[in-house]
From TrEMBL:
Organism: Actinomadura barringtoniae
Protein name per UniProt: Helix-turn-helix transcriptional regulator
InterPro entries in alphabetical order: Cro/C1-type_HTH (IPR001387), Lambda_DNA-bd_dom_sf (IPR010982)
PROSITE patterns named in the record: HTH_CROC1 (PS50943)
Cross-referenced SMART domains: HTH_XRE
């Protein structure tokens, strides 16, 4: 933790994350095993929690260790394993929809997609 942390930025991220998870301050405090005042102070940018408390809050928000500091330094939180999996599943679902569309198309769109995929993977045309 080098310079001054942007507590206001951290506060905004915590509020947004808590809201996206559908949690109240009380519910987040309960999940993290801290007081509601601790969550309030963090979200108000009032006080910076100790390392153990930060770790508990990060876990309750499904963030990785050190994310509150990263956010305070102007970086983005590292996606959790569940977020990575969720994103991968959404992307695979999207790809599945594209391939279903291509399967129904016997024309240029399908040939162009195949040529693109071959170029992307460096495979020869006649395969």
């Amino acid at each position: 933790m080098g310079g001054e942390l942007d507590r206001e930025r951290v506060a905004k991220y915590v509020v947004a994350r808590r809201g996206s998870m559908g949690l109240t301050q009380e519910q987040l405090a309960e999940r993290a095993g801290v007081t509601v005042k601790t969550i309030y102070n963090l979200e108000a940018g009032e006080r910076w929690p100790q390392a153990r408390t930060r770790s508990a809050i990060e876990a309750a928000l499904d963030w990785r260790p050190g994310d509150l500091v990263r956010i305070g330094e102007g970086l983005e939180p590292v996606p959790s394993a569940s977020e990575d999996m969720s994103l991968a599943l959404r992307e695979l679902s999207e790809l599945n929809a594209y391939f279903a569309d291509l399967q129904a198309d016997a024309g240029d769109k399908r040939r162009m997609a195949l040529a693109f995929l071959r170029a992307l993977y460096g495979e020869p045309e006649g395969r």
